[in-house]
Specification:
It catalyses: Hydrolyzes free adenine bases from 7,8-dihydro-8-oxoguanine:adenine mismatched double-stranded DNA, leaving an apurinic site. This is Adenine DNA glycosylase. Pfam families: HHH (PF00633), HhH-GPD (PF00730), NUDIX_4 (PF14815). The chain has helices spanning about 5-20, 25-30, 30-40, 45-60, 70-75, 80-90, 100-110, 120-135, 140-150, 170-175, 230-245, 280-285, 310-315; strands at about 190-200, 205-210, 220, 225, 250, 255-260, 265-275, 295. It has about 325 residues and is of the alpha+beta class. The protein has 2 domains: about 5-175, Endonuclease III, domain 1 (Orthogonal Bundle), CATH 1.10.340.30; about 190-315, Alpha-Beta Complex (Nucleoside Triphosphate Pyrophosphohydrolase). Strands 1, 2, 3, 4, 5, 6, 7 and 8 form an 8-stranded mixed β-sheet that branches. It contains 13 helices and 8 strands. The relative contact order is 0.11. The two termini are about 35 Å apart. The protein is globular.
């Protein structure tokens, strides 16, 4: 949960998650929707899917015993070299280096590294330094300390150098370039995409579809959508093709922007009241096919489903 997310944001999610899934077995046996429901709002949902898959893998492949070697850990979904190192150091007290964002910042400043930290050659250099500094004893204390140092004192902005125990030997402090480091290669401006979210409303319920397991909001539930701003003719054709609707009214809601790591998404919700429509799931059942992942969702009697934040926002906007 702490990958790319701040501690204060994570704490309530972590507490609810651990209350629901106190051990590997309970997590492995959970339905994916249960896991995503507790993760909803944290973002980067592949983390939740990987965590769920990792628990299943440990129960099946490792007979319920959490692996304690780098190779075995990195074979689990979502676990790379740094996460494996953190697990080995903190849970098993094995000597293993880590290199999360906070540690990168501490090492870059301490050693005065002026090449971009998001370049491969610099990252290799930082791994060498992380390995060099990792002690043989009190490994868990050291690992927690260097992460906390970056999170609390050696922060991105307004670092508290006067309180830092490494100040006297810190190259960036000696050269007066603490505010400059670490350097990152310039990232291009995020592109903007637009999408119309179709809110098919039947009585108090809204039609939701389960998204594919990969990609944005993988395995979460969302409204049907079409690319671009609302266009009545396109909405009509889509509704007729997908749901056999021939006539309908539509009510635009206020648009808003949601930002992902790689782009901005401008969302235009449109309410379409219906009396009855033939959903894909209903047509699949009629044809003896496998039921499609599509439901009528009542926001006044919510089910434990994984909903992206923008979908929750649209549900709150509805009159």
């Amino acid at each position: 949960m702490l990958q790319q997310t701040q501690v204060n944001t994570v704490i309530p999610y972590y507490e609810r998650f651990m209350q629901q899934f106190p051990d590997l077995r309970s997590l492995a046996q959970a339905q994916e929707d249960e896991v995503l429901h507790l993760w909803a709002g944290l973002g980067y949902y592949s983390r939740a899917r990987n965590l769920h898959r990792a628990a299943k893998t440990i129960m099946e492949k490792f007979k319920g015993q959490f692996p304690d070697t780098p190779l075995a850990l990195e074979s689990l979904p979502g676990i790379g070299q740094s996460t494996a190192g953190a697990i080995l150091a903190l849970a098993f007290h094995h000597r293993a280096p880590i290199l999360d964002g906070n540690v990168k910042r501490v090492l870059a400043r301490f050693h005065g590294i002026t090449t971009p930290v998001n370049e491969k050659s610099t990252e290799s250099q930082l791994w060498e330094l992380a390995e060099k500094h990792t002690p043989a004893k009190r490994i868990a204390d050291y690992t927690q300390a260097i992460m906390d140092l970056g999170a609390t004192l050696c922060t991105r902005s307004k670092p508290q150098c006067g309180r830092c125990p490494l100040m006297k030997n810190c190259s960036a402090h000696q050269q007066g370039i603490v505010d400059v480091l670490p350097i990152k290669k310039a990232v291009r401006a995020l592109p903007v995409r637009t999408a119309t979210f179709l809110v098919f409303k039947q009585d108090n319920c809204v039609l939701l579809q389960k998204r594919p397991p990969t990609g944005i909001w993988g395995s979460l539930w969302s409204m049907p959508e079409i690319e671009g701003k609302p266009d009545f003719e396109r909405i009509r054709r889509f509704s007729q093709r997908q749901f056999k609707l021939t006539t309908f009214h539509h009510q635009p809601l206020e648009s808003f922007r949601h930002t992902f790591s790689h782009y901005h998404l401008d969302i235009f919700p449109v309410i379409i009241p219906v009396k009855k429509i033939a959903t894909k799931a209903a047509r699949a059942r009629q044809q003896g096919m496998e039921e499609m992942p599509q439901i009528w969702y009542n926001p006044h009697q919510p089910e434990p489903l994984g909903l992206p934040k923008p979908v929750e926002r649209i549900l709150r906007m509805m009159p």
